[in-house]
Amino acid sequence: MKQKLFMAASIGNCVHVAGAVHFLNLAANEGYDTLFLGPAVSIDTLIEKAKQYQPYLVSVGYRLTPENVVPLIRALKQQSAALNCKPVWVFAGTRPVAQLAAKEDFFDLIFDGTEDVDACIAFLRGMDNPLQTAQHADTLVERIMQKQPYPLLRHHFGLPSFSQTEAGIGEIARANVLDVISLGPDQNTQQFFYHPALRDPKMDGAGGVPIRSEEEFARLKAASRQGNFPLMRCYSGTANVFAFADTLRRTINNAWCAVPLCWYNELDGRGERTLEVSITEAQQLMRWHGQRGIPVEVNEPHHWGLRDAHDVISVAMAYISAYNAKAYGVQDYIAQYMCNVPGSMSFSMDLAKILAQRELVEQLADSGFRTWRQVRAGLPFLSGDLDVAKGQLAASTYLSMALSPHIIHVVGYSEAEHAATPQVVIESCKIVRGVIRSVLYGGANAACDPCVVARKELLLKEAEVLLSFIRERYAPYSPDPLADPHVIADCIRRGILDAPHILKNGKFYGILQTRMVDGCCVAWDDEKKQPMNETQRLQALYDAGNLSLPNWEAPAC
């Protein structure tokens, strides 16, 4: 059966056809038949072809002097009255031309060149009702599927003032550039939402928006119900995590949960919980969301990279994070790949690392465990010079597009200087959209670079050394070492999993040192002044006496 026919041409003496051809290519990708009439098509010819082929849609383009388009449109309007079947009429041109075209009150839809690929895709996918307002999916997976292959854009937002945050969410939604607003609540909210008497008023608004009730969460969600109706998600909190998760589910329809596996505890000083307790709670939080069909992100690997762990540990932790999510019942897993950590990594070696992470994570995928790729720029990467930071944001986005992401976590270019305002959020999203527009179809494939491939393969080999070591060493003590909180905690205490920024004391006695070598972060032998592979690093832990038999500490919960 023949599909609906889309016909396109540049009219009058306009020879600019790239936009028309691109639009028809998008239509063909969506399964429509297409017919390109070419440049400088007269109105007589256009009408003749419309009578002959009876297209469902006709797109006409004009990108020359604005005033010259008016007689062409009036002629088209007059002659089109003779058509037996009225097609959907679409106009595309520069903004000044489009403004004049709109005044002629003829076209069903007008594109002025400011639209992105995702807007064209949404239009094409809504062709059964082309003049209706697009319906925006309200769950993460549905939204991803609705926009493929264009990635969703997510951005963090939370100002010290609740009223300014509420107004800012509305402004961002109306801009139609962001798919997911990640609420950033202040520390009082994250820690003392259910214990208001313990809040320190002097810390209200520190690090984010103060939210003091479920009603206020609901108000922020309501503010987003305009424009392109962005999804909303929020930090998991650092106390009463299960009650907080339920609050987020009911008030903002939390698009997905993000939880660290090994952090926000005694390890980094952001809590008093022991490692065993916090890891156990993280696993149970994954299970809670999995039981309710809510996607989960374990934002773990970059925590190690931000603390200067060598690349092998970041790659191994990407696998361990996804492995735990699967083991605890998550069906939709958001794998976050943070570029530029440590900030001095070269782009090629950074790409090799995240490609290795992706390969290990996606080995776990099956019919009951779907993985979705989320990429982002690294916070330490962005300069305090905001003009420089804009270029860095674009460059990092270009790098990360090699992963074919489902979600881009946009980092506001101002983050090195100040929290993102609505204007910064919108501008940062537009910068990222400009990169996507340029590379989504036909970008250079940096993943095929021989140096990138060689480094990726080496990291996969070295990560398997580490993972196999953990499995084999702890097999007598645990039926599933990589998902056992006691095993993971013991590995951190002994330095099997280690980072230079972890404060060494009576509990944590790793010996890892790292250096940047040829754009990579590697384990370093300070005595020999050379890099170490994983076998050598683990042997050094034996030599230091760190790898005696496990001595489990009973969890405090």
Summed up:
This protein is α/β, with parallel strands linked by helices. The protein is built from 19 helices and 16 strands.
Explain this structure to me?
The chain has 557 residues and is of the alpha/beta class. It has 19 helices and 16 strands. It has helices at residues 18-29, 43-53, 69-79, 95-103, 117-125, 140-147, 162-175, 187-192, 214-223, 241-252, 275-291, 301-306, 311-327, 347-362, 386-400, 422-439, 450-474, 485-494, 534-543; strands at 5-11, 33-41, 57-62, 88-93, 109-111, 152-157, 180-183, 231-234, 257-258, 296-297, 332-338, 370-376, 407-410, 514-517, 520-525, 530-532. It has an 8-stranded parallel β-sheet. It has a 5-stranded parallel β-sheet with strand order 2-1-3-4-5, sandwiched between helices. α14 crosses α17. The longest helix is centred in the last third of the chain and has 25 residues, at 450-474. It is elongated, with a radius of gyration of 27 Å.
Strand order of the largest sheet: 8-7-6-13-12-11-10-9
What is the mean predicted local confidence, pLDDT?
93
What's the alpha carbon Rg, rounded to whole Å?
27 Å
Q: What would you call the structural class?
A: alpha/beta
Distance between the termini: 64 Å
> Helix share of residues?
40-55%
- Count the strands? 16
What are the salient characteristics of this protein?
557 residues, alpha/beta, eight-stranded parallel sheet, five-stranded parallel sheet, 19 helices, 16 strands
